[in-house]
């Protein structure tokens, strides 16, 4: 029976125990799409972005671009942006609160208008998530930064070239810096940059726009242009969505064919799944097959920047560890509070102990369906995975988190034979 609480957003009802079988097509990457859409602010010429997933975060980015004055059309995974009409430089609190990635407008707005006023993003459920590294690069480029009434107000008369070594490796920090410096004709050097495939996809776009960017190891040398051009680009496949389906196929003892992936971006995930006992056949550069059924071996995982094991796959792999034959250990090195799925998995019968940034997981024979709450995007995905393999019915609530980052997740799982239904919010 479903609990007697109220359901304020859509929820999923999952009947566990079906091995997933069949083919799934992976959507375009969320975390590549957002900065690429925002890079359009750097030019006055039209831009076309293809393979964009239809997600809450994509819709919020479009809303933000329209708020700034851009014309935007979104039709069948293709977005056309007309940025010549952009005439505002403020990202309001109401939008930044819904999507932290809104801070990515800082670099492009500074480049285009010499002014950016962006609501302070604050912390979020997975950690403090400071943006000090973004601001340090802007300051080095000559920006004058003040914080007023909850907003970061930046002025930059002329973009000066920068030489900066990031104190921590940051994905959006690297992206913001690359976008700003792509508008500077003189040579800038950024060291200790993030090399995530999503960052590299943005680099490809900035090159198409006319910036000369050379990357070696963790160093980028940038020679930008004052007149950046419009671009046309197809976004890379979402490696985290792919990883989530790979875990699902193995976890349920199924046989899943993934298409539209970039196998080269999945190295650490493939390695860990093989270590856990998954049978993985690489069929081409863009497709692979995952099979399970012979048990799950315990794992030792430590999250790291790319090419290391992604923090965005940590929660999903924890579900595997919950059912492994032995004791696993997961260390979360990127975010300080990314174990919120633990309490919910415990409600389903998992044996997990957390000490600081390390979780020790003792494999159990079974998980049992329960009512569980989503706390953040990837935590939600892990609860859906747990529901797919649990005995009985699982109700995953507050799935708006899931809708921020997974396109038609339940439909794709249904296509693989899962028993899962989305239900609208209701009062009980
Ligand atoms: N950090 C700082 N100072 C900064 C920037 C980051 O101390 O100026 C710290 C953060 O607090 C964190 C670490 O550095 O501890 C890494 O943060 P990073 O800046 O790399 O994260 P992000 O850019 O805010 C992106 C993704 C996240 C993903 C992380 C790590 C986007 C829009 N978001 O966030 O994706 O987890 O990189 O790979 O690209 C998700 O998709 O679920 C998600 C959270």
List the helices and strands and how they pair.
Layout: E1 11-15, E2 21-25, H1 30-39, E3 47-50, H2 56-68, E4 71-75, E5 78-82, E6 90-91, H3 93-98, H4 106-113, E7 115-119, H5 132-140, E8 144-148, E9 151-155, E10 163-165, H6 171-181, E11 187-191, H7 197-209, E12 212-216, E13 219-223, E14 232-234, H8 239-251, E15 255-259, H9 267-275, E16 279-284, E17 287-291, E18 300-302, H10 314-322, E19 327-331, H11 341-347, E20 351-355, E21 358-362, E22 371-373, H12 377-389, E23 393-397, H13 400-405, H14 409-415, E24 419-423
Parallel strand pairs: 2-15, 3-14, 6-7, 10-11, 18-19, 22-23
Antiparallel strand pairs: 1-23, 1-24, 3-5, 4-5, 7-9, 8-9, 11-13, 12-13, 15-17, 16-17, 19-21, 20-21
Helix pairs in contact: 1-2, 1-7, 4-6, 5-6, 6-7, 8-12, 10-12
Uridine-diphosphate-2(N-acetylglucosaminyl) butyric acid binds at residues 31, 34, 101, 127-134, 168, 170-173, 194, 198, 311-312, 334-335, 377-378, 405.
Structure keywords:
UDP-n-acetylglucosamine1-carboxyvinyl-transferase, Chain; 31% helix; 2 domains; globular; four-stranded mixed β-sheet; binds uridine-diphosphate-2(N-acetylglucosaminyl) butyric acid; alpha/beta; 428 residues
Question: How would you describe this structure to a colleague?
Answer:
The protein is α/β, with parallel strands linked by helices and 428 residues long. The chain has 2 domains: 11-27 and 237-423, Enolpyruvate transferase domain (UDP-n-acetylglucosamine1-carboxyvinyl-transferase, Chain, Alpha-beta prism); 30-234, UDP-n-acetylglucosamine1-carboxyvinyl-transferase, Chain (Alpha-beta prism). Helices cover 31% and strands 25% of the residues. The strands form 6 sheets. Strands 22-23-1-24 form a 4-stranded mixed beta sheet, with helices on one face. Strands 2-15-17-16 form a 4-stranded mixed beta sheet. α8 packs parallel to α12 (377-389). It starts with 10 loop residues before the first strand and ends in a 5-residue tail after the last strand. Bound molecules: uridine-diphosphate-2(N-acetylglucosaminyl) butyric acid. The site of uridine-diphosphate-2(N-acetylglucosaminyl) butyric acid has 25 residues, from α1, α5, α6 and α12.
